[in-house]
Amino acid sequence: LRLQESLLLKSLGLSSKPSPRSHTPVPSVLWRIFQSRKTLPSTSNDPGAACRVEEFNVPGNIIRVFTDQGHFIHHGQPPGLLCLQKRLYFNLSVLEEGERLTMAQLEIKFSHNSYPSPGQGQGLDLRLYRSSRLPLQGTPAPEHGQKLLLERSFEQLHKALVFDLSGVARDWRSHSRNLGLILEIAGSSGCPGINSFLDTSLLVVTLSQQQCRASRRRR
Amino acid sequence: SAQSIPITPSSLCRPRRLYISFSDVGWENWIIAPQGYLANYCLGECPFPLTAELNSTNHAILQTMVHSLDPEGTPQPCCVPVRLSPISILYYDNSDNVVLRHYEDMVVDECGC
Questions:
Q1: pLDDT band for position B39 (50/70/90)?
Q2: Chain A from 59 to 118: CB within 8 A of any B CB
Q3: Is B75 helix (H, G, I), strand (E, B) or coil?
Q4: What is the C-alpha to C-alpha distance for residues A206 and A203, in angstroms, rounded to an integer?
Q5: For residues A19 and B87, what is the distance between their CA atoms, to the nearest angstrom?
Q6: Nearest CB to A50: which of B33, B97, B103?
Q7: Could you report the per-residue pLDDT of B40-96, keeping only the tens digit for each?
Q8: DSSP bridge pairs for A26
Q9: Chain B 7-66, CB below 8 Å of chain A: which residues?
Q10: Residue among B88, B99, B84 nearest B42 (CA)
Q11: Ramachandran angles phi, psi of B94, nearest 5°
């Protein structure tokens, strides 16, 4: 059966049978899309539906959620006004060569389940840098090795913040090496609720040229 | 003239049930969902005359006619899928990322000659 299995996996666009080490929880966004596709009546399947992600309105037939493999740069409280400084790293090397990246979305999740009353919460400032130089383990990222991608002030009113990183992710794949990102969150008057920071993940949509070529002419 | 084998409705070209169970092929460790799905396949006769519900092409009609005149020389038309559906598969990749992938043409909905 080994030959048959490898041929079938190949036709499914997989070079080999995956062997995951751990079963991480399924992100709710993927489960929701999976369930919505399952309930679609088969009569409504237009030929292109499987090659477009309607939920994000982009071409694509593969959606991956990458877990962050980075680490906090400081043990304990970072210096100065910083409440959090973390290196983020998403290993996009699993993307196959024939896949075209059409969207990459960073999600920063918080675990709080109570909200400050209006006016009482203090703002926090978020900055996201792109690393262009790897620092030594445990040392702060060198200033000149970072490029500011975005900065935003926010109050902890949302369980998650979402940022579009499609351009950066495409750049990682085509022009330069993926040396990760630096996330900084600072507070001008303390760090209210920073403990509710949960984790970050990167949702990437790609289009497999092999499987989404113009499909065979139908009768 | 009448066919040598009696044509019963069940022997006409149509989808046949085929359920693919991923655990049967040992894939349950990396496929999250579904556990399996109805892929089906096409099987059956394309006899002369071809009736409308057999989803036939003009060429198939021609071929059945020639087959009825010269059964040894020209075979019956094939019974093949004419309408298929995609499926989605949720699975873990080698880096423990969760992947949702859509595959076209994985379920046979209709067959034709």
A1: very high
A2: 61-67, 91, 94
A3: coil
A4: 10
A5: 22
A6: B103
A7: 999 999 988 888 778 889 999 999 999 999 999 999 999 999 999 989 999 999 888
A8: none
A9: 25, 27, 29-30, 32-34, 55, 57
A10: B84
A11: -65, -15
If you search the block for the tokens 């009569």, which residue do you land on?
A43
Separation between Cα atoms, residue B90 and residue B35, nearest integer Å: 10
ipTM for the whole complex = 0.82
Structure tokens that stand for A174 in this block: 């085509």
Number of alpha carbons in the 13 Å side-chain half-sphere of residue A168: 23
- B99 contacts A63? CB cut-off 8 A: yes
Contacts of B25 (CB under 8 A, 6+ apart): A1, A5
- Both tokens assigned to B23: 């655990």
Question: Nearest CA of chain B to the CA of A205: how many Å?
Answer: 9
CA–CA distances in Å: residue A130 to residues A82, A116, B55: 18, 31, 57
The token pair at A133 is: 């130089």
Write the CA distances from A199 to A96, A183, A195, B16, integer angstroms.
26, 11, 11, 48
Q: Which residues of A touch B32 (CB under 8 A)?
A: 23, 26
Q: Judge whether residue A120 has pLDDT over 50.
A: yes
Q: Is B102 helix (H, G, I), strand (E, B) or coil?
A: strand
**Interface contact flag, A19 B104, Cβ < 8 Å:** no
Q: Which residue has the tokens 């399947």?
A: A45
**What residues in A contact B105, CB-CB < 8 Å?**
215
Q: Which residues of B touch A21 (CB under 8 A)?
A: 96
In degrees, rounded to 5, the angle at the alpha carbon of residue B72 between the alpha carbons of residues B68 and B76 is 50
Tell me the β-bridge partners of A202.
Answer: A66, A106
Q: CA A125 to CA A49: how far, in whole Å?
A: 40
Closest by Cα among B94, B60, B101 to A93: B94
